[in-house]
Specification:
The protein has about 110 residues and is mostly beta strands. Helix content is about 0%, strand content about 55%. The chain is built from no helices and 11 strands. The chain has strands at about 1-5, 10-20, 25-30, 35-40, 45, 55-60, 65-70, 75-80, 85-90, 100, 105-110. The strands form 3 sheets. A 5-stranded antiparallel β-sheet has the order 1-2-3-4-5, with no helix packed on it. Strand 4 and strand 5 (about 45) form a beta hairpin. It is globular and about 35 Å long. The two termini are about 20 Å apart.
């Protein structure tokens, strides 16, 4: 589910997504270009070391976040583990909209 926050002039200032297990909310601040993870169970906010904007996809079990970043002139798919903080680079992709989870370890490219 996509969550959005607007300022008084109706400009989008942040957007976020609930994890499938409803434990975490990934959200970003568009003005500062910072991304965060809020752990609902621990009532704890974590500033992430990457900014993915609203282009993130949760794994079905809520343990991983897939996102894209430009690296050396190419668009790359990365996975962030919310429990360990580890980021894996999967590889170069044409566009992020074509990525979706089949299960927790596999990808479906449309």
């Amino acid at each position: 589910e996509l969550l959005s926050t607007y300022d008084s002039s109706q400009e989008l200032i942040s957007s976020g997504r609930w994890s499938p297990d409803n434990r975490f909310i990934y959200y970003d601040n568009i003005a500062t270009q910072k991304s965060f993870l809020y752990d609902v169970q621990q009532n704890h906010n974590i500033e992430l070391c990457f900014y993915a904007g609203h282009d993130v996809i949760w794994s079905p079990d809520g343990s991983l976040l897939a996102f894209s970043q430009e690296i050396q002139g190419g668009l790359h798919l990365l996975i962030y583990n919310v429990y360990t903080g580890e980021i894996k680079t999967i590889g170069e992709i044409d566009r992020f909209e074509a990525v979706d989870w089949i299960n927790n370890e596999s990808w479906l490219l449309k």
